[in-house]
Amino acid sequence: MSVNFKVIKGKKQLIISVFCVFCNLFLSMKQEIKAQVISNNGAYVSISSGIVIDFDTMNVDNTTTINNEGTINASTINNAGTIEGNGNYNIASNFINIGTFVCGTSTVNFDGTEITTIGGSNAIEFYNLTFNNTFATAPQITLGINATAKNNLTMTKGKANLAGFTLTLGAGAAAPGTLNYTEGWLYGGTFKRWFNNVISNAIPTSVGHFPMGTSVADYRPLWGGYSAALTSGGTISVVHNPVYPPGSISASHTDSSWAGGTVLEGRSNSSWAVSTANGLASSGSNISIRLGGTGFNPFSLLDVNLSLSNSVLGTYAASTNDNTALEVNRTGLSTADLTSTFYIGTKSIANSPLAIQLLYFVAKCDNRNINISWATASENNNDYFTLERTHDGINFKQLERFDGAGNSAQTINYSFIDNEPLQGISYYRLRQTDIDGKDEYFNLTSVSCGQNDSHKFKIFPNPAVSNITVTLDLTKIDAESYIVFYDIRGKEVMNIRRKADSNRQIRIDINDLEPGCYIMRLTHGDDTCQTVRLIKTMI
After folding, report:
1. CA torsion sign, 363 to 366 to 369 to 373?
2. Mean pLDDT of the chain
3. What whole-number distance in Å separates Cα of residue 166 and Cα of residue 31?
4. Hey, which residues does 186 pair with through a beta bridge?
5. C-alpha span between 53 and 61 (Å, rounded)
6. Which stretch of DSSP H or E encloses residue 337?
7. Hey, how many other C-beta atoms are within 10 angstroms of the C-beta on 375?
8. Is residue 303 helix, strand or coil?
9. Whole-angstrom Cα distance, residue 283 to residue 290?
10. Under 8 Å between Cβ of 491 and 485
C-alpha cells in the first residue's frame, strides 16, 4: 500500500489518496497515516471518512483549511487557519486555537496523560466535547479561552480549571445540550448551561447538574430543577467560590419555613453564585435548588439548610446525602430568586460548625524563642494536630504532635515553644487529622525575630484580591525574577518569570488563585532568594 499527498493545481486542494493492490479491501479497511504536520500554503486538505491520521504536533497555518471527516490523533493541535468537518479528534495534550474551528458534528476527546490546555486567542465551539484525562494531579485540563460544547459534554475523568473563563453547554434554548457525567469537576470559573421550556426537570438529574468543585480535593455540585414548564428557556450560570479552611461565620437570621421558624447561628464561608440570562423565565415560584459536597465536616443533616448571607429565599426542604456527603435543598424559588449567592446555613455552630472552628493560630517572638499558640471553639472527630515548620514553603518538618479532643463544644487552647527557630522568617503550618485519617490544613503563620531580616522583595497589597505588585529593593534589576506560588500543602500552583519595570516593580495577576494562604518564593538572578506569605481574599 502506498500513501500519496498531492496538490491538484487550480483547485488548490490537497487530496489524501490511498492506493491498494487489493481494491476490494479499500472500502472496508481502516486506513492509518503517520504524519507530523499539515502546513501547506493555500491548501485545502480533505481527510475522508475512515482515514486515521496520527500526529505529534499538528500545525495548521493561516492559509490552510482542513476538512476532517475521518479521525485525527494528535498530541497537540495548533490552529491558525481553518479546521472544519464532522470527524473525530483525540488530543493527548493541547488545543491552541488562534484561527477558526468549525465544529460541524465532530467529537473532540481530550484523553491524554499529561496536563491539557484549551487555549489561544479565539473562543471555540465544540459539538461533542469529552474530558477523559488521567494525569495524576489536578488540574488535568485548563481553559485559556471561553469554550462551548454545543451538543454533548462528557466528563469521564479529570478536573478542569476554568481559570476565570466560561464553559458553556448547549447552543440555545431549543438545543440545550446534554451532560454525560461520570466523575471529575469544574472549578475556578463559570459553568453556563442552556435550558429549554420542558414540562418539568426533577432534582437530581443530568439536565440540571452543575459539577463544580475546588482545586484542592472537594466536589461541590449544584442541581437546579423546576416542577412545571418554564415560560421561556435561557441560561443558568454557576460559579463556586471555595474558602479554606472551610468553616462558618456567624449569622442570626431566621428561616421561617423551617420548623415554624429556625434561627441560624452561622453559614458557610464557601458560596455558590448563580445567575440567569438569555430570557430564562419560570411561570411561578416552582424552581428548586440542591447544592453541597465534600469538605464540610463536621455537620449533622438535621442542622443545615440552604441560605443566603443574611436571609433566605423560597421554602426549606430537608437536607440529603443522595449524591454526595452533604446536600442542602430549597424549593419555591422564582427566576428572580435564582440570581443570588447561596451558602450552607447551620442552626448549631456547636454541633454543625461545617469544620473545626479555629479561633486563632499565631506565632510570636520571645527573646530567642518563638511561642506558637492556637485555640479551637469546637472539635468534631478530631484525632490530633501536627505542628510543622518550613523556611521555603516547600519542605515542611514536623515539630510536634498534639492529641485532639475528639468531640468538643468548648474552647481548647494549644501551645508550643520553638527553642531553635530558623534564621530570618519562620513559617508554621497546622495540620489536623480526623479519627478516620482525613487531613485538613490551616493557614500558615509566620514570624521573624530580627535575624537576617533584610527584605529584598516587598509585596503590596497583602492581603490581595486580584493583583499584587512586587517591588525589588536591589541594586541590579536587569536579571529576570522567578516567582513561584505554593499552597499550604507545599504544592506549586503558579509561577512566573519576568523582569522588573523601570520602577523596579513586577505586577502579577492572581485571579487564578483561589482564596487562601500561599508562600511566594522569589528568586532574582542567581543568588538572591526570599520567601513571603501572601493572603488571597475574595473581596
Report:
1. negative
2. 84
3. 38
4. 160, 212
5. 18
6. helix 335-338
7. 15
8. helix
9. 20
10. no
Provide φ and ψ at 460, rounded to 5°. Answer: -145, 140
pLDDT tens digits along 224-239: 999 988 999 999 999 9
Using a 10 angstrom Cβ sphere, with 0-12 exposed, 13-18 middle and 19 or more buried, the burial of residue 460 is exposed
Residue 297 confidence class, pLDDT cut points 50, 70, 90: confident
Beta strands, E only, 391-527: 397-408, 412-418, 425-434, 439-441, 445-448, 457-460, 467-472, 481-486, 492-498, 505-509, 516-524
Residue 222 makes CB contacts below 8 A (sequence gap 6+) with 210, 212, 238, 240, 272, 274, 289, 290, 291
The set of cell numbers assigned to 341 is 449567592
Q: Supply the DSSP symbol for 207.
A: G
- Distance from C-alpha of 130 to C-alpha of 109, rounded to nearest angstrom: 5
Closest CA to 438 of 517, 375, 384, 361: 384
Rounded Cα–Cα distance for residues 179 and 130 (Å): 10
Grid cell, residue 484, equals 513561584
Cis omega (within 30 of 0) for bond into 246: no
Nearest CA among 313, 381, 207, 358 for reference residue 328: 313
Whether the CA torsion 21, 27, 28, 34 is positive or negative: it is positive
Per-residue DSSP letters for 105-128? T-EEEE--SS-EEEEESS-EEEEE
Nearest C-alpha neighbor of 52 from the set 83, 105, 86, 88: 88
Report d(CA 425, CA 472) in Å as an integer.
Answer: 18
Q: Which residues pair with 499 in a beta bridge?
A: none
CA atoms within 13 A on the CB side of 163: 20
- Is the per-residue pLDDT at 281 higher than 80? yes
- Beta pairing class for 51-60 and 71-79: parallel
Share of the chain above pLDDT 90, in %: 52
First vs last C-alpha separation in the chain: 65
Q: All 3 cell numbers of residue 149?
A: 460544547
Residue 274: Cβ within 10 Å count: 21
pLDDT in tens, 124-160: 999 999 999 999 888 999 999 999 999 999 999 999 9
d(CA 370, CA 526): 31
Residue 260, C-beta contacts closer than 8 angstroms, at least 6 positions apart: none
Could you tell me if 59 and 96 are in contact, meaning their C-beta atoms sit under 8 angstroms apart?
A: no
Which residue's C-alpha cell is 500500500? 1
Exposure letters 335-362 (e unless 16+ CB within 10 A, then b): bebbebebbbbbbbbebbbbbbbbeebe
